[in-house]
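ARCHIVE CARD
CATEGORY: sequence design from structure
SOURCE FIELD: tokenized fold
FIELD CONTENT:
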């Protein structure tokens, strides 16, 4: 069992180090990749949001599963905004400022990831109130990056 866990951990580390250094053959490939990751992240974050807003009944297990996926996905899109992702021709909403202000972009992306982890920590308690307390700041962190960098 311990050996299996070590193998899984090693594979996970490899996966993430590969994705975080991912280079794309064409800017459109990078755009598709980041859009896919952000779409899945937003879908699962949104399912937690629906519970926070009382649009669907609170289900602690579902909230936790959804925020876990959102947190996992939140590691991925940023590779698609690196140098090999500049100049995509497919429809996309990335402002050119992303590539002129990479430090600011990185800072905002890291803030969002940190806020999502706070929602995940809250979800582990099983308390809707705890999730509600963390959810707003996470949504606001998405918005502040969109305001600066999304058309
Ligand atoms: C979401 C989602 C976003 C953010 C943003 C917050 O649920 O899909 O892009 O929250 O709307 O303002």
């Amino acid at each position: 069992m311990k050996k299996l866990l070590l193998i899984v951990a090693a594979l996970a580390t490899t996966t993430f180090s590969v994705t975080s250094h991912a280079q794309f053959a064409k800017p459109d490939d990078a755009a598709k990749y980041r859009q896919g990751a952000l779409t899945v992240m937003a879908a699962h974050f949104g399912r937690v949001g629906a519970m926070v807003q009382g649009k669907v009944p609170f289900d602690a297990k579902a909230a936790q599963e959804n925020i876990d996926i959102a947190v996992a996905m939140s590691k991925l899109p940023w590779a698609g905004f690196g140098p090999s992702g500049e100049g995509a021709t497919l429809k996309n909403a990335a402002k050119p400022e992303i590539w002129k202000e990479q430090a600011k972009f990185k800072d905002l992306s890291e803030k969002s990831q940190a806020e999502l982890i706070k929602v995940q920590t809250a979800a582990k308690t099983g308390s809707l109130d705890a999730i509600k307390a963390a959810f707003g700041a996470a949504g606001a962190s998405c918005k502040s990056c969109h305001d600066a960098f999304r058309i």
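CARD ANNOTATION: The first helix runs from residue 2 to 20. The pocket of ascorbic acid is lined by residues 42, 45-46, 49, 139, 142-143 (CB under 6 Å).
SHELF: design records, drawer C
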